[in-house]
């Protein structure tokens, strides 16, 4: 029996208009009412998903989200962090030098603040277009201090240019960080070992939920670890090939209520005594 459903946002729960369909909302509302934990699992900070938590009525005591691709596990009602992992200042300095060498913009996320570092004069970061609910401020690397939390680093730039620059990243960065494309024009750096699966495993441990009682739903490369980890990994029909190849089940697209279809079949029907 599924007791926890972890769901990605973009390309999964959200349709092409960045909205949650009525059918998706109804299926998740019914699952929550039946006692199933509905957990948004995203690369975004909590400040950037509030409208979706409100739409799904996931602001009660006992509602949780996994943010920063597994870097934080938080209570939705208070924002309290119950599990966390972040980058050290020395990591930020190292990634700053990498971004300069690649001639790409670098943004550092610190909770709801995005610190935009001056690593290139030629390319402007696209991150503010991708996450309009966050606060963006320009910083010099010398202004960064050890008392801040650095959740992740991102490079958001034209896809064709990004793909070319990715080829130039030295292998040691893949040894030291989780380096993942979360969208076609967005590359993210997380602490090594920190993935959505890691965040889910911590929350499941805290809640006493077994791995086989977890269903995950996603579409992008950063969803691969949680698709592999879950008792039931579900890929969207619009998912990248790697996700679809590793999933236990492929549901419909994000524009055709794929999340609702999976929840109805694998969560609600068994609860009602169906096959």
From TrEMBL:
Gene3D superfamilies: 3.30.1240.10, HAD superfamily/HAD-like (3.40.50.1000). Pfam families: Hydrolase_3 (PF08282). One of its GO terms (molecular function) is magnesium ion binding. Keywords: Hydrolase. InterPro entries: Cof (IPR000150), HAD-like_sf (IPR036412), HAD-SF_hydro_IIB (IPR006379), HAD_sf (IPR023214). GO terms for cellular component: cytosol. NCBIfam families: Cof-subfamily (TIGR00099), HAD-SF-IIB (TIGR01484). PANTHER family: HAD SUPERFAMILY HYDROLASE-LIKE, TYPE 3 (PTHR10000:SF8), PHOSPHOSERINE PHOSPHATASE (PTHR10000). This is Cof-type HAD-IIB family hydrolase. It comes from Enterococcus plantarum.
């Amino acid at each position: 029996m599924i007791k926890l459903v972890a769901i990605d946002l973009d390309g999964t729960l959200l349709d092409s208009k960045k909205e949650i369909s009525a059918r998706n909302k109804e299926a998740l509302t019914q699952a929550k009412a039946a006692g199933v934990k509905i957990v948004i699992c995203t690369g975004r900070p909590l400040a950037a998903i509030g409208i979706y938590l409100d739409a799904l009525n996931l602001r009660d005591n006992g509602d949780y989200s996994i943010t920063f691709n597994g870097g934080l596990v938080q209570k939705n009602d208070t924002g309290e962090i119950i599990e966390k992992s972040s980058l050290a200042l020395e990591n930020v300095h190292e990634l700053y030098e990498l971004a300069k060498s690649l001639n790409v913009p670098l943004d550092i996320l610190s909770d709801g603040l995005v610190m935009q570092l001056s690593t290139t004069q030629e390319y402007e970061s696209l991150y503010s277009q991708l996450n309009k609910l966050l606060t963006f401020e320009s910083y010099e690397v010398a202004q960064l201090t050890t008392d801040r939390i650095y959740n992740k680093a991102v490079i958001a730039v034209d896809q064709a240019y990004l793909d070319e620059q990715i080829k130039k990243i030295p292998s040691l960065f893949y040894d030291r960080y989780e380096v993942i494309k979360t969208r076609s024009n967005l590359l993210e750096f997380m602490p090594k070992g920190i993935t959505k699966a890691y965040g889910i495993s911590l929350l499941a441990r805290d809640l006493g939920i077994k791995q086989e009682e977890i269903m995950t739903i996603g579409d992008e490369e950063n969803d691969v670890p949680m698709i592999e980890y879950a008792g039931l990994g579900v890929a969207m029909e619009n998912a990248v090939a790697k996700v679809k190849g590793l999933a236990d089940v492929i549901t419909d697209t994000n524009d055709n209520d794929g999340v609702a279809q999976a929840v109805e079949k694998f969560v609600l029907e068994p609860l009602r005594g169906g096959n």
